[in-house]
Design brief:
Blueprint lengths: L2 H31 L6 H8 L4 H7 L2 H30 L7 H15 L8 H11 L3 H25 L5 H22 L18 H17 L5
């Protein structure tokens, strides 16, 4: 490898490292302080980069926001679609069992939302974005979640034909809320608000997944109410 090639490789590796550090720093700060409150200076200081680096790699705070959300959400949602397809294929195209569908929704979020610090920055960021909606983040979330919601609602409706679509829809929202509530509480940054006789933070992922799948499935099977 000649000197020119070596320098090009080094520059490419350095660029990738700086970009990754900016994304990781932005995720942590957005999750802690909210996107609107976070400043580029905070992010670049956390990433040990200069402010101009944001413009160089992302052009704007808006594009940085989009990239952060896409980077942390796409792997989770891709894994959800893959898991849902796998359980349908395993059943020869027939409707899978309710627990299989629910696990396809739950497991990727539980397993893939853990950051390099052992926290749940992705979950905290989603909670921030949901509680402080903005046109930009609403658009990004629609892009990331609309297909997921349609696929899971279709599968759940096929599995629960006795329930009206609006009932399946609201119970699906309850399911998503349960997942986010539990994972938000699991984040080390969250404090225990109530003494419920157990410590969620000591539970391993597999236990959390099993409990969520059992709880959510029972909710879908609950008697229909008018």
């Amino acid at each position: 490898m000649d000197n020119v090639t070596e320098k090009r490789v080094e520059r490419t590796e350095k660029d990738a490292d700086t970009r990754d550090r900016l994304l990781a720093a932005a995720l942590r700060i957005f999750a802690d302080r909210g996107i609107a409150s976070a400043t580029l200076r905070e992010i670049t200081e956390e990433a040990d980069a200069n402010v101009a680096a944001v413009n160089y790699y992302f052009r704007s705070k808006e594009e940085l926001t989009r990239t952060v959300l896409e980077t942390c959400l796409r792997p989770i949602n891709d894994a959800r679609l893959k898991a849902l397809k796998a359980c349908i294929d395993k059943n020869g195209g027939a409707t899978p069992a309710l627990e299989e569908i629910v696990e396809a929704l739950v497991r990727p979020m539980v397993e893939l939302s853990i950051d390099s610090y052992g926290g749940r920055s992705t979950v905290r960021l989603l909670l921030q974005v949901r509680s402080l909606p903005q046109p930009l983040t609403n658009t990004i979330l629609a892009e990331q979640f609309d297909l997921i919601h349609r696929r899971f609602l279709d599968a759940l409706s096929d599995c629960l034909p006795h329930l009206k679509p609006d009932v399946v829809g609201i119970r699906y929202d309850f399911a998503r809320g349960a997942i986010m509530q539990i994972l938000g509480d699991l984040d080390p940054a969250a404090r225990d608000v109530l003494d419920l006789g157990f410590k969620q933070k000591n539970k391993d992922n597999e236990t959390i997944i099993k409990q969520l799948v059992s709880f959510i499935s029972a909710g879908f099977r609950a008697a229909n109410v008018s």
